[in-house]
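To whoever is on call:

I kicked off a structure prediction for a single chain this morning and the downstream step that reads the tokens threw a length-mismatch warning. I double-checked the sequence; it's 87 residues and nothing unusual in it as far as I can see. Pasting both halves so you can look.
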Amino acid sequence: MSVVPHQISVDQHVGRRLQSALRETAMTQVGIAQALGVSDDLVRAWCLGETRVGAEMLFRLTSLTGKRIGYFYEGFGLAWEASALEG
């Protein structure tokens, strides 16, 4: 199954949810990068959906943000459908 270009990918959705989690916890991309031992460029790429967040990093992000793993996927189907309607 291919994704139509105007529809958001799961990576973009997870990135948006990561941005939300950072805002809600008053954490910065630089701060989360330091806590995870990765570059702030990598965290930026995650937030933009340019790079996929791996399972281990996603698990570690749950500890740092206090969010469940499911939080990062919540609403994906709805967001995907809405972006299809907008296109």
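Update from on-call: the warning came from a stale cache, not from the record. Cleared it. Sanity check on the structure: Residues 59 and 69 are 7 Å apart (CA to CA).
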